[in-house]
Specification:
452 residues; six-stranded parallel beta sheet; Rossmann fold; 17 helices; alpha/beta; globular
Length: 452
Amino acid sequence: MEQLNILLFPTRFFPAISGGDFLLERLGREFLRISRRSSKKSTLEIKIQVSVITSTAIDFASLHGHGRTIDTSHKYFSQYKNLKIHRYRVLNSDSHPSNKKYEKNIYSMLFELTKQYLNLDENDLKDVIKNGPILPEFIYDLFHEQFENSLKFVPNIIHCTYLPYLNIIYSLLIAQYYKIPSCITPFLHFANIRYQKPIFYQILKIFDCIFACTKYEKDVLISNGIDENKIEILTMGVDTNRFNQDDYRSHFINIYQPKSPVILFCGYKNYEKGALTLLKSIPLLIQKIHQFSVVFIGPSTTAFNYQLAEIKKKATNIKIINISPENLTGMYDKKKIGAFQLADVYCMPSRSDAYGIAYLEAWATKTPVIAANIPAMHEVVNINKDGLVVEFDNIDQLAKTIIKILQNSSLKKNMGELGYNKVILNNNWTKISELTLKKYHELIHSKNSNNL
């Protein structure tokens, strides 16, 4: 029986809530399911082990050592859904205010390793290091007996997410040391200036395989010097049954008492994701629709909180419901699913998305979507069929588009149905995981042949 040891390295992991991190969690669970199934069928003789390496970070601030982290006493610290997890503490510079030598040693070790194994020098790494996470114990353990003992296996392949965080460097170091293939799903957020640094594409060139979510993402990678043969297009998936097997609408209503119709946003509440644009559209919506609710789910920002307070002063006759990740238990939280089931339209006019798993979650509940008119969304949204697009940060256009859907029940119903049928056909996690495994096998075979 073939043995396949897969190492996954997301930036964060459950109970952190992020589409990019969720991808590897969901793939890992599918890989284990395939392994269990193959043990019962002699025609599929493959045994798969999966381990996850990640940071203790929960929110984005904790990647820099200043936010929420998971404690060793947490029930999901070392295992979740049969996935073994090895979490490394994020460096908090405040923990060592008088010991700058400690931090200096960590950075020196990191610079030395990347120079030796990846041919990257200190100047190359500056733009990556500032994004974190710095994991002191991981850097000390790497290439030592402690590291292999904690994994309890020698990996055959490593897969990480996502730009622009430092775990992509860690993953490449592991791959170089073990001489195994390295894969990344980078989730390029094209319009965000953080993703436009040349060093990121220099680092991506080192990977053996890059999983792009869309053809547009693939084209951007190629235009930045990435070998076309290294790029594989794989979409995101959605667990449609999880959004439909139970009705959580009454659960959400009992907690928040929303006014109908319901406009839903789920994502990072910042300018890039379109959360501020949606907030600013509310006064225009009130002129045409006198009663409604807007539900925001996701991490807040200072700009969002300020704008929300200003809007609430003017919009006293509508309901704005603001939910943070601290109020949720994960990607399948009852309140979150209830919000999607209640929503009349899902609105995330973001210019900072490589794909957007929340659009799939909306379609899983037969909810039409509104996205920003950016190239990647032309491959995600079937425009005028299962959703509509607006120009990014165009407040007036967004308000008119929301009103168009809310005031046309047949349009809303048809778009929701078409979106549901699409994700059932194209965004199945089992199919995505099988295609991923197929690519893993190709990469391992090629790497083994080259190492002979």
